[in-house]
Design brief:
Length: 459
């Protein structure tokens, strides 16, 4: 499929075509600026894999191990199965609707405005908190005493990179991903070589988590937390408007990124359980550092710290990019303020949305301890993918590898993992979603009132 010179693809909605208005009535809209298609399969896969590795490897394993106990690898497998269902659904929809916004766009076009809004709002709020968590994790690995200032600086610098254009984002993501993969290989080698003869102490020390739930029920909430680590491939779908030949590129990139992350997570889970005592793994604040610190390669701890910092920066870079594109899509449909839909002519990036996301992340960093929002983010993303599976279920033309029963499995799996997350995460995110729904309802009510009163005043 050839790329047109104006940056659109066959099947794209022309920028001047009327879109549905909040009241459900089609109407004229001001022509909208389109983003340019510059990403191939390799760059798209790197962005997705960079997002997943930065989030999962250095954040999720310890709390997941505390919940699942010896069944940690099973929790990773359950999360991987649900992620595969979601990836297939995302690939189908992204190839059909190659626009920025991901499931927000898919939900609107296949299910209606409200499901699309719930998906978009859940993604933006959950992933904005994830941005703050990644930034603060970066600060803690580099210099714990100055974690917050370093986190703010990281957000500012990476937002500047994004504003230079998507090709710069992809280039930096590839560099950071290479550093992360080298770090993970080093950790794996250290674990395989076994503990240091002198029994070196663990690098991080934290109180042990409570014993995991009996009967294996901890697998489900642990899988819900691990799903946070698999959600990076959503970034590929949210960049759909900037991908070359989306019908071919997006499915390949999503499945390739997911397969790579699944193999890495499963291998690391097995190695960590084999190398570290259960209570140490469950209570560690930095399990990969512990794995290296007690090994024969303990002198390589600084290298692992540098790799962790690179992973967090890579995840943060892709997160800011994805949240900015979803914000752009929601602003185009007037579900968020219209100025957020502005696209820079020189660099073809949604600069207003990117700056707004960065500002929200900085506010979180300066006002809140966001290291407890993994469950909160997981809940929002699981709701997002529940809508993805429901939208994919309605598609008529389907490839052989995407039967409808896979969408049903993905939809039910997302809901089960969401409701089994820690109660505080469920309640908090449910309140955030309810606030968004109430806000949109009031805005639509005001607009409808204006539409009715306008003609009456003229008469």
């Amino acid at each position: 499929m050839a790329t047109r010179h104006n940056g659109t693809q066959p099947g794209d909605q022309p920028s001047g075509e009327p879109r549905d208005q909040p009241g459900g009535r089609p109407g004229p809209r001001r022509p909208q600026q389109r983003l340019q298609r510059r990403l191939g399969v390799f760059d798209s896969t790197a962005i997705g894999l960079g997002s997943m590795l930065g989030a999962g490897v250095f954040v999720v394993f310890s709390p997941a191990a505390a919940l699942a106990g010896p069944l940690l690898t099973l929790a990773v497998a359950v999360a991987g199965v649900i992620a595969y269902c979601n990836a297939v659904a995302s690939a189908q929809l992204a190839a059909r609707f190659p626009d920025s916004g991901g499931t927000y766009v898919y939900g609107r076009r296949q299910l209606g405005q409200w499901p699309g809004f719930i998906a978009g709002w859940g993604f933006i709020t959950g992933k904005t908190a994830s941005c703050a968590a990644m930034a603060l994790t970066f600060g803690h690995y580099v210099a714990p005493a100055y974690a917050t200032p370093l986190a703010v600086a990281g957000v500012v610098v990476l937002t500047g990179v994004n504003l230079l254009g998507i090709t710069r984002t992809a280039l930096l993501t590839r560099i950071l991903l290479a550093v992360v993969l080298a770090t993970l290989v080093f950790v794996a080698v250290a674990a395989v070589l076994g503990p240091h003869p002198a029994g070196a102490p663990a690098v991080s020390a934290a109180p042990a988590y409570p014993a995991p739930p009996s009967g294996g029920w901890g697998v489900l909430p642990a899988a819900g937390l691990m799903f946070f680590a698999f959600a990076g491939y959503a970034r590929i779908a949210t960049l759909g408007e900037e991908v070359k030949d989306p019908a071919r590129t997006i499915p390949r990139a999503i499945l390739a990124a997911l397969a790579g992350a699944f193999v890495i997570y499963l291998g690391l889970a097995a190695l960590l359980q084999w190398h570290l005592p259960p209570q140490q793994l469950a209570g560690s604040t930095a399990p990969l550092l512990d794995a290296v610190g007690v090994s024969r390669l303990g002198a390589g701890v600084p290298f692992v710290q540098a790799g962790a910092a690179a992973a967090c920066l890579g995840a943060l870079l892709a997160l800011i990019t994805g949240v900015g594109r979803t914000t752009l899509a929601m602003a185009r449909e007037r579900d968020l303020p219209a100025p957020l839909a502005r696209v820079g002519r020189a660099r073809s990036v949604p600069f207003t949305a990117e700056l707004a996301v960065a500002a929200a992340v900085v506010v979180l960093l300066l006002s809140t301890d966001v290291m407890t929002v993994v469950g909160f983010s997981s809940f929002g993303v699981l709701v997002y993918y529940a809508v993805t599976n429901a939208a994919a279920f309605t598609l008529a033309g389907r490839p052989w590898h995407a039967p409808r029963w896979l969408n049903v499995l993905g939809f039910l799996g997302c809901l089960v993992l969401a409701v089994t997350l820690p109660p505080a995460s469920v309640l908090f995110m449910a309140a955030v979603l309810a606030a968004g729904v109430a806000g949109r309802f009031l805005v639509l009510l005001v607009r409808r009132t204006r539409d009715i009163e306008g003609p009456a005043r003229k008469t």
